[in-house]
Fold this protein.
Amino acid sequence: MSGSTLLDPVDSYASDPVPIDPVPVPEPIPRPQPQPDPPPDEVPIKLSR
């Protein structure tokens, strides 16, 4: 096996324009939703307004 034979398939692909499917953009990973505020009964008096 010579280097030329290994490069032949690569050259054929490089020379012929191969239609490449557009890479689907991965959906952005949703950030973890902030935990909802605790019920009024559990809200410390200092934080409650």
User: Anything to note?
Assistant: Residues 3-15 form the longest helix (13 residues). The chain is about 25% helix and 0% strand. The mean pLDDT is 65. Helices lie at 3-15.
